[in-house]
Design goal:
The protein is an alpha+beta fold. The chain has one domain. It has seven helices and 17 strands. It is globular. The N and C termini lie far apart (about 60 Å). InterPro entries: DUF1329.
């Protein structure tokens, strides 16, 4: 079955080699959505081996005991136990279903890195209005500027039946993550000896692309607004960042501003894109690593390789449990495997190769996109010599209050320095991400508002 999926994907890629010039799919192909395909374009059927089940709608309601948005998420599968655990000792048995980056982590940390594997639960789900919009997008969405943006899609996955690699990348960038979110969370660089120091911030984002009453015509090239205020440590507290994320970043680059609490000044941040290093990440994350991958895709040639069955993090409720302390979760080299959960899922494999003459610290990126959500689960990234350098891993779970599948934690491993970086830690916060706050207007995300709020 694995070989069949890969051959199917390769056939698609070869048949549509000129895919970046193609428009939306035919009505006949779009009619497969919700029938043989899920509304997001995944194969509804399970695999021949029975190790991946049929998709039957995913999680459609919160588990007992959940009181609402902002509460830490109870595990909807508390009785599940690992079927087996992949270790360095039995790695050869499972290599066919792992990425090169995952294999490299076993080699880097042979005595401690493990992957507990659970039964596959296709828990991915989304609101019906997002499904409806996705079906509409399938026959209207089109790429712009050679793939640097897209048009005539709104409120759903733009290309549920992708014709090429850049469409698949846009599906990840434009996937559903709610409309307005508020959260307080920490990020941390874990050093080679296991030491770490938290940087905590208040974050807010308004996804204009998913305003229920909006439309593509209303976007004015703005996909979302993002606002972050640093709360600690004291030396960074009061600083803030504001981002206006554009849909076509070649036509109109991302707009960003920073607020310096010491100077009480707002300044443009024109270089917050591509491989610009993020200060709080201690050199372990680039601007376009955020959210696994974001921003303009124009510096890479993207190839849709096909589908593959891979063990990826899925239904990871323990890694963000309020009962798990950071000191127990953050181990030398990697997260504590005891709190992680991996499942066998089909993923789209997309390879990005740096264009001739383009500049970036990564010469190649291989993305593994969960077929049920379009969320990047793993990304292997290579240096200028073509050697595997960094491995990004998203520990996915279903935020069933919406619902949507999104990352619980994003972890960025540097295989050369043997350090790693973690985003979105909120285990020790009294609340978690809140999707229920009133949606502000656009003026809330203006640079002047950044100055006013930064002085509070």
């Amino acid at each position: 079955m694995l070989k069949k999926h890969m051959l199917t994907g390769v056939a698609i890629a070869l048949t549509l080699a000129a895919g970046q010039a193609l428009a939306a799919v035919s009505p006949a192909d779009a009619a497969k959505l919700g029938n043989t395909l899920t509304p997001f374009g995944a194969e509804k059927a399970g695999n021949a081996a029975g190790t991946i089940p049929e998709w039957t709608g995913g999680i459609t309601k919160a588990p007992a005991g959940y009181k609402g948005s902002g509460q830490h998420h109870p595990d909807p599968f508390p009785g599940d136990k690992p079927l087996f655990t992949i270790t360095k000792a039995n790695l050869d048995q499972y290599k066919a279903n792992l990425t090169p980056g995952q294999i490299a982590l076993f080699q880097a940390y042979p005595d401690s890195y493990q992957m507990p594997v659970y039964q596959t639960r296709r828990s991915g789900s989304a609101p019906q209005w997002v499904y409806d919009n996705t079906v509409k997008n399938a026959t209207t969405a089109r790429l712009l500027d050679g793939g640097n943006g897209f048009a005539d899609a709104y409120g759903g996955i733009p290309f549920p039946i992708p014709q090429n690699g850049v469409e698949a990348v846009w599906n990840h960038i434009a996937r559903y993550r709610g409309t307005y979110i508020v959260r307080r969370a920490s990020e941390v660089a874990v050093q080679r000896n296991g030491s770490f120091s938290l940087v905590t911030s208040q974050q807010e984002a308004l996804f204009k692309y998913y305003l229920p009453k909006g439309s593509y015509a209303d976007l004015n090239n703005i996909m979302f607004y993002y606002l972050s205020f640093t709360k600690s440590p004291a030396r960074l507290a009061g600083g803030a960042t504001l981002v206006h994320e554009t849909l076509d970043q070649v036509k109109e680059p991302r707009q960003a501003w920073g607020y310096n609490a010491g100077q009480r000044r707002v300044r443009r941040a024109p270089n917050l894109a591509y491989d610009t290093p993020i200060a709080a990440a201690d050199g372990l994350r680039t601007a376009d690593d955020t959210d696994m991958f974001n921003g303009a895709p124009d510096r890479y040639d993207w190839k849709l390789v096909g589908k593959k069955e891979i063990y990826i993090p899925y239904n990871n409720y323990q890694v963000t449990s309020s009962e798990v302390k950071y000191k127990d979760l953050l181990q030398v080299g990697h997260l504590n495997p005891a709190f992680t959960r991996n499942e066998l899922h089909r993923v789209w494999v997309v390879e990005g190769t740096l264009k001739s003459g383009a500049r970036h610290i990564y010469s190649k990126r291989t993305m593994y996109l969960d077929e049920d959500s379009w969320q990047a689960a793993v990304i292997d990234q290579y240096d200028g010599r073509g050697e595997l350098w960094r491995v990004s891993i998203a520990y996915l779970k279903n935020y069933y209050e919406l619902p949507t599948t999104w990352s619980a934690l994003d972890v960025f491993h540097d295989l050369q320095s043997r350090r790693y970086y973690v985003q979105n830690l909120d285990n020790e916060e009294p609340t978690t991400i809140d999707f229920s706050q009133a949606i502000p207007d656009d003026g809330y995300f203006k640079p002047a508002a950044l100055r006013r709020r930064g002085t509070r």
